[in-house]
């Protein structure tokens, strides 16, 4: 046995970006724990972090390309797998055009450097408009509201949790999610820090979540009414003369319009719909205005609902009107070291953001961020006609579990002429594929959180090399994506990957060299490429982004600046300091102002007004539930993470349980307009009366999937109940919270009388 070796890497499993310390013996990982010296996470780690080892060793993980045959999947060579894709894809493209090929990207792509940098190369090569992702079952409303207000959809202000005195959170459970659209490891510690310095944490949620239990105040709210509550708080600020954007006043457009819109939403007018007393709403608004440094933060519960964009917008309207946007302790804009769209182009002004540059074929819904609502994916596959999706690529995704009316999607997948999946598992989605191409395990991949550092509560940068080096069996994912690009563009299975990589790199360089605001504007591309000659693939692109980024060495003009080499020398990461004010520099609106009342949002207020007065029948509504040991629809094949009592249960309030004849530990059928699932019941006063909560991501009961552990803890798929026709109109995000349902007890079968 060789001596133990210690290595460090960032955990790629969620947005918290925790530093991990790994012990290796004889080339095998023997221990994983938090990296105490990590500049951001300081040793914090959640139970999922240690799962990298069982994930890597999982016998169910796909290690060779799989080809569907009459007798099931068979392992084939990479050339044979790609040859089969070429043979079947080209006729689809020739007969029906590029929009006949769809693509779905799952959440893990956001944590994957190869996929972030090379996935878009492949998508561009396909040329399809039929792109879908997990964004529209999660966070698209926030991108749309931020894009319309600040000009760039990734310019999302995050609460400055380490300096704030008052944090109002809606639909967020960071103690389970570990932060979402907010990269901040150890949220429990950070929330406790707020209280320890005399601050206040307030949670609004239909469920008394783990986060709510840590808070000073928790208010139950009826699902889907966050926009009403937030509008009422805005109303109070204006009515009581508390609205004051402070130094931002000169940077804002539309304050009067917001005031006029809020006039209809007095606390007394929304209290019945929200379920929060008007006096409490007024007090929350006053507390928020009075706090020295405060931030409002809304997350998935405010997005996956009927008025997701309005709620997301109002969160930042409140941050502006209380003078808390862009100041320490308020809601601030992070500045990522690489790839931050809001650090490019002319500071303070841009083209702005819009949706609807093209529309879906069947329902005519607008694109946002270049993709369509995933709630439309099934109908775009199963509705015949010109433009119908006939071939589909999925990348690290499981839409058969994670999208609304999942039953329809599963049937639709069966009708495809070709389905190709790049994935580590044969899951409920990829089991429909004709070809599955494996991706390497995280221990065989390098890592840099290109996307998430743009949402971090502190400016940091951390690069991790592949702990176990390249996988001898599974090529690097960027390599696979470029080979697929070769196939799609007619260069065939033997396409020159190096030449393709050079081409992609040259495009990236030219974009920056031709940007007058770039630190390398006008420089000689050949000279700069020569400085990167020792690298290829994602490392070369990342080095470029770091060196031309806001902290970079700018290829010589800022000699002490960041390079990949410098980052590699710091295995615990580099702390680039606390968040700093960035307005007006961060803005990319065409007006150069914060647009407080953008037209698409103002238009949607009418829909909200109508819903406020709509008749409510008092029936039950369904919401989701985030769980610490789950990661949406995956990670359920890791034994340590599914051990213990059944977690896929329905939380029901005692009053509802009594009224409906449900028993704690019994089972219930939960029925919506779309389907029925059967789940165990947990009776708890931690849920609002009239609401039932079932976690998403379960339902591993497909016998064709190869998830041995998950199948033994299958649970039920709550997305069978979601209606694909119910969306947040401006963003197209699916409505997964506030679904009308009925609950009925499942009675034990009567014994059959003896003959
Ligand atoms: S909190 Fe997220 S990043 Fe940190 S160890 Fe857990 S899964 Fe990994």
Molecules bound to protein: iron/sulfur cluster
Separation, N- and C-terminal Cα atoms? 68 Å
> What structural class results from the helix and strand content?
alpha/beta
Mean pLDDT, nearest integer?
95
Q: Helix and strand layout, with pairings?
A:
Layout: E1 5-10, E2 19-25, E3 28-34, H1 52-57, E4 66-69, E5 72-75, H2 78-96, E6 101-105, H3 113-126, E7 131-133, H4 140-150, E8 158-159, E9 166-170, H5 174-177, H6 187-196, E10 200-204, H7 210-214, E11 217-219, H8 226-239, E12 252-253, H9 255-262, H10 267-274, H11 278-290, E13 294-298, H12 300-303, H13 308-321, E14 331-332, H14 377-382, E15 391-395, H15 399-402, H16 406-414, E16 418-422, E17 435-437, E18 447-448, E19 458-461, E20 463-464, H17 477-488, H18 497-513, H19 525-531, H20 537-548, H21 564-568, E21 574-578, E22 594-595, H22 599-612, E23 620-623, H23 639-642, E24 650-652, H24 654-660, E25 667-671, E26 676-683, E27 691-693, H25 708-711, E28 739-746
Helix pairs in contact: 2-17, 3-17, 4-13, 8-10, 8-11, 8-13, 10-11, 18-20
Iron/sulfur cluster (SF4) is lined by residues 11, 13-14, 16-18, 45-46, 48-49, 178, 185.
């Amino acid at each position: 046995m060789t001596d133990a070796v210690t290595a460090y890497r960032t955990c790629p499993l969620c947005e918290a970006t925790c530093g991990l310390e790994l012990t290796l013996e004889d080339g095998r990982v023997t221990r994983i724990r938090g990296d105490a010296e990590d500049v951001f996470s300081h040793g914090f780690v959640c139970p999922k972090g240690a799962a990298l080892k069982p994930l890597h060793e999982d016998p169910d993980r796909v290690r060779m390309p799989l080809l569907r045959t009459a007798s099931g999947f068979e392992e084939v060579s990479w050339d044979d797998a790609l040859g089969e894709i070429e043979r079947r894809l080209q006729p689809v493209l020739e007969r029906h055009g590029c929009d006949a090929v769809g693509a779905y990207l799952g959440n893990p792509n956001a944590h994957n450097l190869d996929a972030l940098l090379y996935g878009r190369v492949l998508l561009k090569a396909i040329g399809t408009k039929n792109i879908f992702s997990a964004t529209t079952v999660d966070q698209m409303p926030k991108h749309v509201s931020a894009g319309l207000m600040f000009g760039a959809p990734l310019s999302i202000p995050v609460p400055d949790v380490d300096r704030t005195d008052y944090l109002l959170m809606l639909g967020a459970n960071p103690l389970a999610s570990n932060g979402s659209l907010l990269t901040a490891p150890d949220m429990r510690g950070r929330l406790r820090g707020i209280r320890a310095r005399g601050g206040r944490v307030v949670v609004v949620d239909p469920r008394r979540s783990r986060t709510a239990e840590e808070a000073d105040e928790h208010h139950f709210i009826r699902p889907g009414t966050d926009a009403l509550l937030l509008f009422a708080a805005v109303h109070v600020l204006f009515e009581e003369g508390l609205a004051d954007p402070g130094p931002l006043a000169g940077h804002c457009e539309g304050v009067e319009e917001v005031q006029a819109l809020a006039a209809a939403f007095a606390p007394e007018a929304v209290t019945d719909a929200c379920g929060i007393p008007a006096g409490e709403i007024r007090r929350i608004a006053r507390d928020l205005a009075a706090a020295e440094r405060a931030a409002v933060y809304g997350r998935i519960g405010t997005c996956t609902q009927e008025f997701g964009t309005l709620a997301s917008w109002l969160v930042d309207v409140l941050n502006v009107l209380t003078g808390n946007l862009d100041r320490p302790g308020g809601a601030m804009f992070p500045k990522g070291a690489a790839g931050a769209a809001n650090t490019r182009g002319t500071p303070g002004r841009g083209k702005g953001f819009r949706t609807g540059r093209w529309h879906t074929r069947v329902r005519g819904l607008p694109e946002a961020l270049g993709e369509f609502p995933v709630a439309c994916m099934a109908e775009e596959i199963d509705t015949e006609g010109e433009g119908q999706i006939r071939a589909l690529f999925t990348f690290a995704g499981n839409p058969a579990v994670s999208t609304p009316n999942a039953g329809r999607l599963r049937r639709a997948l069966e009708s495809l002429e070709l389905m190709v999946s790049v994935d580590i598992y044969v899951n409920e989605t990829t089991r429909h594929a004709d070809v599955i191409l494996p991706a390497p395990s995280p221990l065989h991949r390098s890592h840099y959180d290109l996307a998430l550092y743009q949402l971090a509560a502190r400016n940091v940068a951390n690069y991790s090399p592949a702990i176990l080096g390249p996988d001898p069996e599974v090529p690097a994912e960027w390599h696979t994506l470029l080979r697929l690009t070769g196939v799609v563009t007619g260069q065939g299975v033997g396409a020159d990957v190096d030449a393709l990589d050079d081409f992609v790199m040259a495009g990236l360089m030219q974009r920056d060299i031709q940007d007058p605001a770039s630190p390398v504007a006008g420089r000689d591309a050949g000279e700069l490429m020569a400085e990167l000659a020792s690298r290829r693939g994602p490392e070369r692109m990342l080095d470029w982004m770091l060196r031309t980024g806001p902290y970079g060495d700018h290829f010589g003009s800022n000699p002490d600046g960041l390079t990949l080499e410098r980052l590699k020398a710091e295995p615990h990461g580099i702390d680039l300091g606390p968040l700093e004010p960035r307005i007006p520099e961060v803005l990319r609106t065409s007006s150069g102002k914060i647009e407080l009342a953008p037209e698409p949002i103002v238009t949607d207020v009418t829909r909200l007004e109508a819903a406020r007065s709509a008749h409510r029948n008092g029936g039950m509504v369904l919401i989701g539930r985030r769980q610490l040991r789950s990661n949406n629809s995956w990670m359920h094949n890791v034994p340590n993470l599914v051990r213990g009592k059944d977690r896929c249960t329905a939380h029901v309030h005692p009053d509802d349980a009594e009224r409906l004849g449900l028993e704690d530990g019994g089972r219930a059928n939960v029925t919506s307009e779309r389907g029925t699932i059967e789940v165990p019941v947990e009776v708890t006063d931690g849920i609002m009366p009239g609401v039932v909560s079932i976690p998403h991501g379960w339902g591993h009961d497909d016998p064709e999937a190869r998830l041995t552990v998950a199948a033994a803890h299958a649970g039920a798929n709550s997305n069978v109940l979601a209606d694909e026709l119910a969306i947040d109109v401006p963003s197209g995000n699916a409505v997964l919270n506030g679904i009308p349902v009925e609950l009925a007890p499942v009675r034990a079968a009567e014994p059959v009388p003896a003959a």
